[in-house]
Design brief:
31% of the residues lie in helices and 16% in strands. It contains eleven helices and 13 strands. Helix 2 packs parallel to helix 3 (161-169). The protein is globular, with a radius of gyration of 19 Å. The termini are far apart.
Length: 384
């Protein structure tokens, strides 16, 4: 047993399991795990001499006890001013400038490090399996390549050819699944129970969330020990939002910030089950959303497994849900490109939302994926 690892706990049933097991979900409710982990405080001054990656926040990370770690130098992405409004300003965190060109590297490095330790420690891991609409799959593939791990990635058959090329280039084996993102997830979960398989799920494995929370730790460091007035994040499965909520709670709990900023969650209007539940005052999804086409394919999740946690996190922060139309997504992508930032259509959702509904004070939006992965959204009115 790898004693440096913390335990999994089911947020719904209270069931515990060791984190060095290959049990990828709660055996009772089949829901996703949380992690029984408590972070420690850190000081801004201590960060100056640390490694230039997300591993610098070692007090906040559950896998930071063993060195060296798997790394590609992820994290530490720029925070740049984007626009001024009548009531405040907007800055963008350029998370598309990650090694695999998306924010998913923050969580993928944690899953690859966990899988590496399980394989090294005799945990029976022979292959890593992931499912994705593209970005998480490319990130898992890259970090498994870095760690020397065998990797397979299940993706929808409609996945961008550029993302498939990237997955293959890293030595992973893509499996194209007919149907939508939900069909892909079901196929991957069926394969995840095969002996010797580590399911590197960015939804079910909570180590991913402890990687994405470094997004907010970086904001805290960049802003000199404070947080923005509003944190806006895109939400499909909620991995960035839940990571952000973890970080805010930890920073506030350690007395490192004096307030919790509201979390504003953004969904595409075409697939917005969480926004519908939130505005109806529900604690759970009203019903899985229809799988309608949208430019924001990365957040088009009809039935997110962590829906209850996402809704609770947004309400607890005093935040809200916003939705954006396909025309707003197209316009936002082109607007950012004219500002020098070429971002994929899913990654512009927050900028589209903030353009339509400006927030007071300093608002930070993430630009989550590079436009080179998917190209420019089609529009009959667009002229080069």
């Amino acid at each position: 047993m790898l004693t440096s690892m913390t335990a999994y706990v089911c947020p719904r049933c209270g069931v515990h399991a060791p984190a060095d097991a290959l049990t990828w979900c709660c055996p009772q409710c089949r829901g996703p795990w949380d992690l029984d982990f408590t972070s420690a405080p850190m000081s801004l001054t201590s960060l100056a001499s640390r490694v230039n990656s997300l591993w610098r926040y070692e007090e906040a990370l559950p896998l930071a006890t063993e060195i060296p770690h798997v790394t590609l130098g992820e994290g530490r992405t720029p925070l740049v001013p984007l626009d001024a409004t009548a009531t405040g300003s907007v800055s963008a965190k350029l998370d598309f400038l990650m090694p695999t060109l998306s924010f998913k590297d923050r969580g993928a490095v944690m899953l690859a490090e966990l899988a590496r330790r399980l394989a090294k420690g005799g945990g029976g891991v022979r292959r890593v399996l992931a499912d994705s609409s593209g970005n998480a799959g490319t990130a898992i593939a890259a970090y498994c390549a870095r760690a020397g791990l065998d990797c397979a990635v299940y993706v929808p058959e409609s996945t961008s050819p550029k993302k498939l090329e990237q997955i293959r280039a890293h030595g992973a084996r893509p499996t194209l699944v007919p149907g939508d993102r939900e069909a892909t997830a079901r196929a991957a979960r069926a394969a995840a129970d095969e002996p010797g398989t580590f399911y590197a799920s960015h939804v079910y494995n909570p180590h991913f969330l402890h990687g994405t929370k470094t997004y907010v730790y970086e904001l805290w460091e960049e802003l000199g020990g404070r947080l923005p007035d509003t944190i806006v994040v895109p939400v499909g499965n909620g991995t960035l939002l839940l990571g952000a909520a973890l970080a805010v709670d930890e920073l506030y709990g350690h007395g490192l910030v004096d307030r919790r900023p509201p979390l504003v969650a953004v969904q595409a209007e075409a697939v917005s089950p969480l926004a519908a539940a939130f505005h109806a005052g529900a604690d759970e999804l009203l019903a899985p959303a229809a799988a309608r086409p949208t430019l924001a394919e990365g957040i088009a999740i009809p039935n997110p497994p962590r829906a209850r946690q996402i809704l609770r996190a947004v309400r607890g922060s005093g935040g809200t849900f916003l939705t954006v139309t396909e025309d707003q997504l197209r316009a936002a992508q082109r607007d950012l490109a004219r500002r020098g930032l070429f971002v994929e259509s899913t990654g512009v959702a927050c900028w589209a939302a903030v353009r339509a509904a400006p927030q007071p004070g300093l608002t930070v939006v993430p630009l989550c994926g590079a436009g080179a992965k998917t190209g420019l959204s089609p529009s009959s009115t667009y002229r080069a």
